Amino acid sequence: MDVERVRADFPLLERSFHGQRLAYLDSAATSQKPRAVIEAVAEFYAERNANVHRGVYALSEEATEAYERARERVARFVHASDPSEIVFVRGTTEALNLAATSLGRSILEKGDTVLTTVMEHHSNIVPWQLLRDYAGTRLDFVDIDEEGRLRMDQYDQLLSPRTRVVTLTHASNVLGTVNPVKEVAERAHAQKAVVIVDAAQSVPHQPIDVQRLGCDLLAFSGHKTLGPTGIGVLWGRKDLLAKMPPYMGGGEMIREVHTDRVSFADPPARFEAGTPNVAGAIGLGAALEYLEKVGWEQLANHERYLTDRCRRALDDTFGERLHVFGPLASERREAILSFQLAHLHPHDIASLLDEAGVAIRSGHHCAQPLMERLKVAALSRASFYLYNTAEEVDRLVAALVRAERKMLGQPVPVASLRTLRLVGGRDGRHCGFKYLEVMESFEGSG
């Protein structure tokens, strides 16, 4: 893949910070946008801006046609059986909240079980906790093994006739672990459970076929997939969406409203109350088209190369002082490396790397149950995408070396450290380790 040609399509990557060319290694949080997406959004506002579905004048009809073309584009992208299976929402979070609320009002009863995993993003935990608290459902978590892979043996133990929903991430935003969704779905369907997939971290990196995955609902965000912010997708099986009650009321989701009764539109309109993000949907359609033109095989090979290069360099440079979490084999993970560097807090690392123009993520990554499972307060995370280069990987490793030396003076073996004191917050968000004392001195930088 010609990475420099790809990079030329992304205006923001031309920026510099602190005198250094930006090395953006935080695409798991949000991806950068190619000119094709920026221009598609701008063109809509300049040429076609009108409310959709409500006007009989030509401009509104143009806007509606563009909006529905975007829906058809998304349907083809995920291999939906029909465009009506595509519901536009603000993002993965809203899609999962929609699913939890609507299923909670329809198929779930007190005592029923929702089964999820300990590696989930908060967006796939909190909605089910809210449902548990007001509806009396049960929420169980499947553990991971020491390599960060889902424990299918425990999944089988927890799965029961009372399990009505199984909801899991396709790829972990911390570990990079790619879960065996098809296998999970087959076993869940044997118990007549609905299967929901959080595909926020997989859709940007691999072809998605909802028919082959075998799930019932699937959610993803546009902003992680080269698209605009504020737009996302909930795909659902047509028969299931038809049985699900609305999530919000008002606007286009109604068929008739009277003082004593209301009836609702068919999906997807039933779930798209109010004026939709038309420009966002059009931008998402442009993003998916761009992504497919790059080619999935080329993208996978490029990301695997960057991930393997980074992991080898970290191992060679830091040895046991640095620990990477998640599966060892790159083919079992997405291009995400979450790591812990001995004696340094992730927020300190991210701040020092920023001085070198290297942007990475730090914190609990909206996955505090997973942090508790891993026995860490926070982690540093580098995530790679189609516009990242080998040179940026090398800059990351070099910046980590400088950060370690700046904070500690020189690498310090774990056995030499007498004490560390945690300063600042206790939640892993705004805190750092203060180096207090070393038992002995060392010569050389190590």
Structure description:
This protein has 446 residues and is an alpha/beta fold. The protein folds into 2 domains: 3-32 and 295-438, Aspartate Aminotransferase, domain 1 (Alpha-Beta Complex); 36-292, Type I PLP-dependent aspartate aminotransferase-like (Major domain) (Aspartate Aminotransferase, domain 2, 3-Layer(aba) Sandwich). Helix content is 37%, strand content 20%. It has 14 helices and 19 strands. The chain has helices at 3-7, 35-48, 58-78, 92-104, 126-135, 152-158, 181-190, 210-213, 238-243, 278-294, 296-318, 346-355, 368-374, 390-408; strands at 16-17, 20-21, 23-24, 86-89, 113-117, 138-142, 163-169, 194-198, 217-221, 232-236, 254-258, 261-264, 322-325, 336-341, 358-359, 361-363, 379-383, 417-424, 431-438. A 7-stranded mixed sheet has the order 4-10-9-8-7-5-6, with helices on both faces. Strands 13-14-17-16 form a 4-stranded antiparallel sheet, with helices on one face. Strand 18 (417-424) and strand 19 form a beta hairpin. Helix 4 (92-104) packs parallel to helix 5 (126-135) and helix 12 (346-355) packs across helix 14. The longest helix has 23 residues, at 296-318. It is globular and about 75 Å long. Residues 412-446 have low confidence and may be disordered.
